[in-house]
Amino acid sequence: MHYDIHGLTSPDAPTILLSSGLGGSGGYWAPQLPALSERFRVITYDHRGCGKTGGSVPEVGGISAMADDVLEIVETLKLEKFHFMGHALGGLIGLDLALRRPELIESLVLINAWSKADPHSGRCFDVRIALLENAGVEAFVKAQPLFLYPAIYMAENSEKMAAEEAHALAHFQGRDNILRRIAALRAFDIDDRLGEIQTPTLVIATRDDLLVPYSRSLRLAEGLPNANLVLTVAGGHAVNVTYPQTFNSAVLDFLSGVERA
Fold it and tell me: How buried is 80 (Cβ within 10 angstroms: 0-12 exposed, 13-18 middle, 19+ buried)?
């Protein structure tokens, strides 16, 4: 597993581990690093089969297998307790860890995540798979921003969109890996176990998320015994990228409260 450490360097420093979504790149969290690095040891990593991490997601094991990859990093760094922030797929990894290894997780931040996939998200996955299988990698990559960002953000950041597309094409994780990751997203279902997770949790969602209906986050906030909800009007699926200052402020406020408790 390839990982990077940012910010504070002491092993005794408060630590937060960040897990990205379907793209799987630790670089996804660039808008959060300056704010988090002032107060935390920040760990980002590339998911298996993504970026600088080799291999591929196993055919069986789903989200738990991806959570095991996080535990490999945890063991390497000898982490006894840490905060965990996950976007979409990364949030599902965090929920799996909170169920299986609750003693490790000091708090959870879940961004546009879910305890059970909504049929609408399944429709979006079907479209993306059809693009990949019938139109190829370039079409799949070109469509990706549509599921991440609001239209106005894409219109105002055309050069950024072009750069992201070129990078995604150059570092595409591979057909089999992406299909296995989507299958894991669709199969994940802990809806009847949310009450078991006592971890302090911040649930962040956006009303204009095209990929994940915000009702999925409302369900998380209702079902998790110790959860707070931040529901924004705009920002799309990748709200931490489109509105980083607002997002970072909400996360830091939450983490400060957990640290004081």
Answer: exposed
Separation CA 180–CA 56 (nearest Å): 9
Interatomic CA distance for residues 146 and 149, integer angstroms: 6
What pLDDT is stored for residue 259 in this prediction? 86
The helix (H) or strand (E) run that includes residue 140 is helix 137-148
Identity of residue 140: F
Could you count the other beta carbons within 10 Å of the beta carbon of residue 165? 15
| C-alpha separations of 94 from 17, 74, 129, 146, 196 in Å | 10, 13, 25, 25, 14
> What is the average per-residue pLDDT within 49-75?
94
Closest residue by Cα to residue 187 from 64, 78, 34: 64
d(CA 175, CA 188): 20
Domains for the chain: give ranges and CATH numbers. 1-257 (3.40.50.1820)
Determine whether 157 is exposed, middle or buried from the number of CB atoms within 10 Å of its CB (0-12, 13-18, 19+): middle
The pTM (predicted TM-score) of the whole model is 0.96
Using a 10 angstrom Cβ sphere, with 0-12 exposed, 13-18 middle and 19 or more buried, the burial of residue 192 is exposed
**Do the strands 41-45 and 3-7 form a parallel or antiparallel pair, or are they unpaired?**
antiparallel
Q: In what order do the strands lie in the sheet with 3-7?
A: 3-7, 41-45, 15-19, 82-87, 105-111, 201-206, 227-232
Nearest 5°: phi and psi at 12? -85, -5
Q: For residue 60, what pLDDT is reported?
A: 87
Whether 36 and 5 have beta carbons less than 8 Å apart is answered as: no
